[in-house]
From TrEMBL:
Source organism, top-level taxon: Bacteria
UniProt KW Oxidoreductase keyword: yes
Protein name, UniProt field: FAD/NAD(P)-binding oxidoreductase
Keywords for the protein's UniProt record, in alphabetical order: Oxidoreductase
Coiled-coil segments on the chain, per record: none
Domain FAD/NAD(P)-binding: from-to ranges: 6-316
GO MF entry, a single one: oxidoreductase activity
PANTHER family on file: ANAEROBIC GLYCEROL-3-PHOSPHATE DEHYDROGENASE SUBUNIT B
InterPro entries: BFD-like_2Fe2S-bd_dom, BFD-like_2Fe2S-bd_dom_sf, FAD/NAD-bd_sf, FAD/NAD-binding_dom, Metab_Enz_Cyan_OpOx_G3PDH, Opine_Oxase_asu/HCN_bsu
Domain (BFD-like [2Fe-2S]-binding) ranges: 385-434
Pfam families given in the database record: Fer2_BFD (PF04324), Pyr_redox_2 (PF07992)
Entries under SUPFAM superfamilies matching the protein: FAD/NAD(P)-binding domain
Gene source species: Streptomyces dioscori
Length: 464
């Protein structure tokens, strides 16, 4: 009997899970590599077993979908068709003639590395939050919207007792409802977008009644829990000494500027703020995959332009769990067929393809409405830290552009050290580009995460 073809799936969120199941069911030996101790990704993040959560389903939508994925994974692992490697932090993927070597650091210490070898790779690496600075954003008590949600889902803890949820995008409503349901007082939900702008996209939105119903449910929950919603508003500044004590909120005019005289202060001890998401593309860039803007470019089968490499989920464009599931299924079926030296049968994923097309259109409309205007840079004071790792203030970035002639993010980085810290610009990159007035550019880093020098000095780990 010939050896089964090998697939390495990086990321055990919705896209990675459904792709693994689809490929394994068709004879592919799948190794599912993930940094978390449990499968599920950010969307299906689970409380630690030791916390004894009695009703984890209360923290999630689409719980039945998660149960099907969880039980399917357990069955395939038990049958020996999928190897699930938890707490494996992938730092590099290398091409080795006709195969790939996936390098991962082990456990929370991340001091040892192993190599997973495969005939094909699926990048299901998800996304991360876009962070835009404002005065006071580094105070303890200020977290990202997704961070607040992760604290609640995985640790069953609140970022504070009195919260403000602010920024823009569809994530804000579930975060506000989740915090309120868990016992926090949500003093305000501050959304910079204007819901009336959705009228221009009525045709696209009407094609997704399930999404509209979900939004209506969250809106009703906000009303029921007496959360005050302020649209076309923004957090101007956060205040406090040792930690957050209040935020200043202001109304925005049609140009995105804070209207004079519209500001007021909201007492709170936590601020969950989010301005959208960006795809994780580090591994794709290292492999030489083409990007379409900030997303990994893929074809109708979710193939990148690098032979043997597929991508699915948020890495190809932010669009939520349903879109990730559709893309993951298409990728899994494509991989299984291509590793068997045949083209996939489009009829096998016609439903997923239809869902993918509709959801991409839907989230493109949402993105048009919720993308922050460039006016946010005017609210960033010169003394506001932009790069927290290297403690670079906005004044240094403005000086690099206005006085030293920097015209791109790389030059700003060289002149100011913004982006040279632990996160390597993943957090401050969009802010640096915005303040510099130039588009963000791919970093093309050799490694996707910090790697101990001892790991690089040693021989590669034994292949799996």
């Amino acid at each position: 009997m010939s050896e089964r073809p090998r697939l390495a799936v990086i990321g055990a969120g919705p896209a990675g899970l459904v792709a693994s199941l689809a490929a394994a069911a068709r004879g592919v030996a799948v190794t599912l590599v993930d940094a978390a101790p449990q499968a599920g990704g950010q969307f299906y993040r689970q409380p630690a077993a030791g916390l004894g959560a009695r009703r984890p389903s209360a923290l999630h939508h689409q719980w039945r979908t998660w149960e099907r994925l969880r039980d399917g994974l357990a069955a395939q692992v038990g049958a020996g068709r999928i190897t699930h490697l938890t707490e494996h932090h992938v730092w590099c993927v290398e091409r080795e003639s006709a195969s790939f070597a996936v390098h991962a650091l082990l456990g929370p210490e991340e001091e040892e590395s192993v190599v997973v070898r495969a005939d094909a790779v699926l990048l299901a690496t998800g996304g991360y939050e876009k962070v835009l600075p404002f005065p006071g954003w580094t105070l303890p008590g200020v977290v990202t919207a997704g961070g607040a949600q992760a604290m609640l889902k995985s640790g069953l803890v609140l970022p504070g007792r009195t919260a403000v949820v602010a920024g823009t995008g569809p994530l804000l409503m579930p975060v506000a409802v989740g915090l309120a349901a868990a016992g926090a007082k949500v003093a305000a939900l501050v959304e910079s977008a204007d819901p009336k702008d959705y009228v221009r996209h009525a045709r696209v939105l009407a094609a997704h009644p399930d999404k509209l119903a979900e939004g209506a449910w969250y809106a009703a929950e906000l009303v029921r829990r007496r959360v005050k919603v302020h649209v076309r508003h923004t957090v101007v500044a956060a205040h406090g000494t040792d930690r957050l004590e209040a935020v200043t909120v202001g109304a925005l005019d049609t140009d995105g500027r804070v209207r004079e005289g519209s500001e007021w202060r909201v007492p709170c001890d936590s601020l969950a703020v989010g301005h959208g998401m960006l795809p994780h593309t580090d591994l794709a860039e290292t492999l030489g995959c083409r990007l379409d803007g900030v997303n990994v470019a893929v074809d109708d089968e979710q193939r990148t332009d690098v032979p043997g490499v597929w991508a699915a989920g948020e890495s190809t464009g932010i669009g939520g769990a349903a879109l990730s599931l559709a893309e993951g299924r298409i990728a899994g079926l494509s991989i299984a067929a291509r590793l068997d030296s045949r083209a996939p049968e489009p009829r096998s994923y016609v439903s997923a393809a239809k869902s993918r097309a509709g959801l991409r259109e839907f989230f493109a409309a949402v993105d048009t409405v919720c993308t922050p205007t460039d006016r946010w840079v005017e609210r960033v004071g010169d003394d506001t830290l932009v790069c927290r790792c290297e403690e670079v203030p906005a004044a240094a970035i403005r000086e690099a552009v206005d006085e030293l002639g920097a015209s791109d993010v790389r030059t700003v980085k060289l002149l100011t050290r913004a982006g040279m810290g632990w996160c390597q610009g993943r957090m401050c990159g969009p802010a640096v580009a915005g303040l510099a007035g130039c588009p963000p550019t791919p970093a093309r880093r050799p490694f996707a995460r910090p790697v101990p020098l001892g790991v690089l000095a040693r021989e590669p780990g034994e292949g799996l």
